[in-house]
Amino acid sequence: MGRVRRALTGPSAIAVLVVAVAGVGFGLYWFQPWKLWQDETVQEALPGAVSTPAPPASAPAPAPSDEPSGQSAPATGPHTWASGELISHEHATSGTVKLVRLADGSHVVRLENLDTSNGPDLRVWLTDAPVRRGRAGWHVFDDGKHVSLGRLKGNKGSQNYALPADVDPSDYRSVSIWCDRFDVSFGAAELTRA
């Protein structure tokens, strides 16, 4: 009995216990399994798409325009340059992706009605890779040219991700919800020019 008690409280037993606790802690940090049950919804409006309310009935009439009769100033609102539907890869994923040119000439990737799983270290990537269905499409997005547009703001909702000024959107053909920790796509969309 004394020998068993010494074995359970000896230095080697304590070392094994410390290694086991450290292994469990590392596994929890690395996989973050609780995120599978936590949803984060983010609803952002498209930049520059704010509608102008109609003037009240008592407002004065607008001043005459210097524009010649029959001509108006060009529309300066956002324009969808390309779009696509998200397909599922490692996790069930749905929604629409739009590459939008804003009035100031900048571009954003817009995720609309996104619905995917939460996970550790999810990013939004603009890539030059083709979108493939099934397991064949899980790992292709880091093989070629890609730009990380930042961390996924929420696994549900509609969100905007600005393209850096030096990125030419015509060099890219797809968007992936990319898990940087495990180098795998949760879902992706092939972009088709509008």
Q: Helix fraction?
A: 10-25%
Low-confidence stretches: 51-55, 61-74
* Mean pLDDT across residues: 81
User: Would you list the SSEs in sequence order as H and E?
Assistant: HHEEEEEEEEEEE
> What structural category characterises the helix and strand content?
alpha+beta
Please tally the β strands and state the result: 11
CA-based gyration radius: 25 Å
Strand-residue proportion: 25-35%
CATH fold topology of the largest domain: Immunoglobulin-like
Give a brief rundown of this model:
This protein has 194 residues and is of the alpha+beta class. It has helices at residues 2-9, 11-31; strands at residues 41-43, 79-85, 87-88, 94-101, 107-115, 122-127, 146-151, 156-162, 174-179, 184-190, 192-193. Residues 51-55 and 61-74 have low confidence and may be disordered.
